[in-house]
Write the structure tokens for this entry.
Amino acid sequence: MVPGEARSEATGKVASQLRKGVLEYCVLALLRDGPRYGVEILDELAAVSVMTTSQGTIYPLLSRLRRDGLVDTELRESATGPARRYYTLTTPGRTALAEFAESWPRFRDGVDHFLTAPHGGSA
Amino acid sequence: MTGTEHPLVTDYLSTVEREASFLPAGRREELLADLREHLAVAVGDEQDPQAVRTALERLGSPAAIAAAARAEEPEAAAAATTAVAPKPPNRTRHTITAVLIGVTGFAGIAGSLPSAAALIVGLALLWTSDAWDRDTKVLATALTVATPVVVLLGAFLLSGRFGVMELLAVLAVGIALPATAAVRLLRALPKAA
């Protein structure tokens, strides 16, 4: 599962640490326009490569979001298959998402500042 | 029937169950239900072995899922915090330590034996405690051990003209040094909850 090459392993570590902080907000953002069920959320995340992770690890995250009251769940019958658990954004969830959406550009710009601005010294 | 009855799936789920045995039963059941439900949707009714394998691969290793579950547990976060947090202070013991060290000067008036006893027990308690950092321990020890030296030295130097004032001065220093150590020790303690 872990790539043998040391370089990609290190990149994987960076990505995994970054993902840890933002993944839950990406999940909240996915629910902004309406309820979705688990597999749907996972597929959306998998479509963006940096958010790719073992899909199964999302379920503990979803469970915590539910415990924290940021999402609500509801089991709905499906015409085509088994019943599906739908996740809905709650009001506190929406607030948390709005706060993140406000902080993120500042955060991103802050990081970019250090990564791109010339600081003299070693280049 | 759904794909969750495929042997590969039941094997997978029982591995997750084993790996996640640290979770409270309710939470573990919830996780397994989530995964079962996911597989039911992802695999569908055909139970095509290749589809099952792909779905399980994409879910990731049971160990990774268990690790993610552990990271999301409030108890795990709390345990990690308490593991590094200092133990609640044993105030009685700390007070006894400080008092013993503080009275070594007074005990010296009663005789060298009580003073030495208080000194030895006090220092033993001090150095076996983790309530104080090394610098504080060294300082308290230096102040306390210095006392008999200062008193003897004072008595020797002043032996020619040893009056009441000199005696009082030596006594005051002998009492003040350990008392200072005791006060410092007590101040260095975390406040009672």
